[in-house]
Amino acid sequence: QVQLVESGGGLVQAGGSLRLSCAASGNIFKINAMGWYRQAPGKQRELVAGITTGGSQSYADSVKGRFTISRDNAKNTVYLQMNSLKPEDTAVYYCNAAILSWSGRRGDYWGQGTQVTVSS
Q: CA-to-CA distance for 7 and 43, rounded, in angstroms?
């Protein structure tokens, strides 16, 4: 059993900052790629940022230069620092992780989502 628990969402004014966290726990041998996705009302879920085990990062064009993804492998945690937030960043943010369990099972896991609302 693997769980991803997110925290850090909320309401912020345009130009403000938020930091999201996502901690993985349970039957975990190794966590491979981790990432953050978001889904706005009426839109498809989209990849915001990803990070490999070695720390290589990738970003959606819409957040480059404003968002930073990082991870703490010792804590099985991934972070998303969001600066210069815009109203169009309003969405439910989900973390995702590719996890290998001690039993050898590979799975793709999701957090429950955390709401980020940016007011203009």
A: 22
Parallel, antiparallel, or unpaired for β 114-119 and 91-100?
A: antiparallel
pLDDT band at 22; cut points 50, 70, 90:
very high
Average pLDDT estimate for 49-74: 97
Mean pLDDT, the chain, rounded, equals 97
| 101, 28 Cβ separation under 8 angstroms | yes
Closest to 20 (Cα-Cα) out of 41, 38, 1, 33: 38
Q: Are 99 and 32 in contact (CB under 8 A)?
A: yes
pLDDT the model gives residue 57 = 98
* pLDDT of the residue at 98: 98
CA–CA separation, 104 and 22 (whole Å): 23
Distance CA 45, CA 52 (A): 20
Token couple for 90 = 């309003």
β-sheet bridge partners, residue 80: 20, 69
Q: Contact at 8 Å (CB) between 92 and 23?
A: no
Residue with tokens 């990082």: 70
